[in-house]
């Protein structure tokens, strides 16, 4: 839960409002309807949607989602799963009353574990999730990213915390200006790793 939650929060805080919900949605779909965790993620998903629609000047959509998000978050304490919900609920009330507010002030950043994390603050687990979300958002092929994530996890479990795949996932998520070059390098590394594995399999 934490990795999905934190990945989505960092994506949101870096301004990728439409993409943020993808990090939360996969986890949300597995949760029991009406549970506190489900309400949290459902509320955050709709918060990101409200902001996105407001920025697209879809005022009716923004109002509807802001109202719905507020309802999902209303039953939760002010701090839940170490997410500060009070400021979010207040902002949702303002957007529901005046969706054009988003043009005059930025959305409330999401605070988690005492800070408002961005993509550069994420550790390995949330970064791997964010990499897939951002690849989809920006139109990159998903298979190399997903394979790199699998290799990074495997290397980490084997004690290789200096894995090149971990480094490349961090770079893909954090380096906006060089994301295309990083993706090319990542794809090449995935191809070489797959070739080595195929060579080993061919020996038996």
CATH class (first level) name of the largest domain = Mainly Alpha
Number of helical stretches of at least 4 residues: 9
CATH H-level homologous superfamily name of the largest domain: TTHA0068-like
* DSSP strand content: under 5%
Under the CATH scheme, which architecture of the largest domain would be assigned?
Orthogonal Bundle
The helix content, as a percent range, equals 55-70%
Give the low-pLDDT segments: none
Separation of termini? Answer: 40 Å
The pLDDT mean sits at: 93
Compute the gyration radius: what is it? 19 Å
What name is given to the CATH topology of the largest domain?
Hyaluronidase domain-like
SSE string, helices as H and strands as E: HHHHEEHHHHH
Short key terms for the protein model shown above:
DUF309 domain-containing protein, Hyaluronidase domain-like, two-stranded antiparallel sheet, elongated, TTHA0068_sf, 204 residues, DUF309, mainly alpha, single chain
Description:
- This protein is mainly α and 204 residues long.
- The protein has 2 domains: 2-118, TTHA0068-like (Hyaluronidase domain-like, Orthogonal Bundle), CATH 1.10.3450; 123-202, no CATH class.
- Helix content is 67%, strand content 2%.
- It has helices at residues 2-13, 17-28, 36-55, 59-74, 86-97, 124-137, 142-157, 164-174, 179-202, and strands at 79-80, 83-84.
- It has a two-stranded antiparallel sheet.
- A hairpin with a 2-residue loop joins strand 1 (79-80) and strand 2 (83-84).
